[in-house]
Amino acid sequence: MGLAGAGAVVGIGLAAISAVVARTVVIPPSRREDDIRILRYDAHARTVTLAATPDSTLPGDYSFWFSGDSGHARIGEIIEADRVGVTREVLAVDFGDLERARRGRFSGWFWLTPRDLGVPYENVAITTPLGAAPAWFVPAEADADRWVIQVHGRAVRRAETLRGVAPFRAAGYHSLLISYRNDGEAPRSADYRYALGDREWVDVDAAMAYAIARGAREIVLMGWSMGGATVLQALTRSPRAALVTGVVLDSPVVDWIVTLDFQARMRRLPGIVRWGSTP
């Protein structure tokens, strides 16, 4: 094979890798990787010992999904740790068999439904262009015309936003925790691809219409990660944006090119692959 042929093969290979990197961003994952080994579970002491990783050594309370998301536990603070393992308190096992589990993963959100918060709530449906999308409505402590619409991030679901309910409820806001297209709960789009906020904002707009129909006169939009990008799109494109009195963003994606390049660098991909995988 000549130099031109070899160059063509290399070029095709790099293009293929770039395409794969880009596809992992826009295609909703079917499952998440269990990236933490479970070394020991003591049901009597209510502790679990995990391999030491950047996630397992973080202080605080977290969700811990295990056995391919067939089980879920709530993990508390670190009891002891060394370079090999970290032992943490097990606050609850919601479902699954942690005794038999071998691997799991951490999640930044902690609760699974509003029931875990001990507050009243309703299961509601938002009428979007693709069909009915499920949502949770959590009323404020007193009657109000102020609403916050919580928009979760990429590859997770509305349960991520439960951690934002308590402070808004105490401040007198009704909370609407929504799903949106392709997140595994709301209807799929025809191409079953994330648009990174460029189309998802339409579902946020539908949630705003729902809130207004139920008496909202002031709306705060809160977005988490890709939900932040979606909120910003809704703020600039929704005909109902005049009622938005505030925006709260948690780790928002405000520049996808910078974000994708950072992720590629973290995976030690060569520059030519990084450039090919960014829009």
TrEMBL record:
Pfam families: Abhydrolase_6. Residues 163-270 form the AB hydrolase-1 domain. InterPro entries: AB_hydrolase_1, AB_hydrolase_fold. This is AB hydrolase-1 domain-containing protein.
